[in-house]
Amino acid sequence: MDWRDEGILISARRHGESAAIVELLTRAHGRHAGVVRGGAGRRLAPVLQPGARLAVDWSARLEEHLGSFRVEPLAPVPAALMADGAALATLASVAALLGATLPERDPHPDLHARTCALVEALGRAPDWPARYAAWELGLLAELGFGLDLARCALTGATDDLAFVSPQTGRAASRTAAAPWADRLLPLPAFLRDGWDAPPPASEVAAALALTGHFLDARVAPGLPRETLPAARARALDAIRRR
For residue 64, is pLDDT > 90? Predict the structure, then answer.
């Protein structure tokens, strides 16, 4: 069995004296692991960093085996990201969430593309915190827990959507939801309508609270420890301090 693909590195850990077991989010083969011979050596270890984009050849005797990767670097982790502590913490959260939540070998090409775009933006684009919040919203959809932000669940209206039900994940307009506003989650407009300028920090925080609620309520119970990776909480703290 063998195939060629490209992926973004999620994690790498030493294996034996000089090899490494790496995990990638590949474009056509999903979250996939394999052994890289020499991956812990001086030549490859600097390449095998979370967020690096790689061309990979995977081979194994049987499809269900771990198999091995031959890797070629396509794009390193951006230098601007490496110099920004909050961006680095966010990259760690992205990698941890992908590794914890995605089923192995299940293709998610759209998520792969969005993740590559986010990594390119981290530490460089002024709006990268908003992009990260939108990425988490997309992750929920990829996992089958997408929010319905297209119209008001109460009236069917498509304008002035300001809240989301914490139970159903459906949007509600400001007027229709007014009697229950204190029980609902705020819906920052940029999550639904996009943005031209970086959204205010308060809206980004509200967006991350929204995605965090549904990650905790719908995704975390299915994880081995029934909790989200600690890297996400560290990323949120770093973004707030930023």
Answer: no
How many Cα atoms occupy the beta-carbon half-sphere of 236 within 13 Å?
17
Question: Which segments within 184-226 are labelled E, that is strand?
Answer: 185-186
pLDDT in tens, 185-233: 999 999 999 999 999 999 999 999 999 999 999 999 999 999 999 999 9
What are the two backbone dihedrals, phi and then psi, of residue 185, each rounded to the nearest 5 degrees?
Answer: -95, 135
Three-class DSSP labels, 143-160: CCCCCECCCCCCCCCCCC
- How many whole angstroms separate alpha carbon 55 and alpha carbon 71? 6
CA distances from 100 to 57, 171, 212 (A): 24, 28, 15
Whether residues 104 and 207 fall in one domain: yes
Burial 59-73 (b: 16+ CB within 10 A, else e): eeeeeeeebbbebee
Helix (H, G, I), strand (E, B) or coil at 3: strand
Q: What does the block give as tokens for 41?
A: 């050596």
Same domain, 39 and 69: yes
Q: The pTM is what?
A: 0.95
CA distances from 103 to 13, 30, 210, 212, 223 (A): 20, 8, 23, 20, 11
Residue 158 lies in a domain: no
CATH of the domain at 202: 1.20.1440
Query: Across the strands, what pairs with 104?
Result: 31
Closest by CA to 214, choosing from 149, 155, 130, 128, is: 149
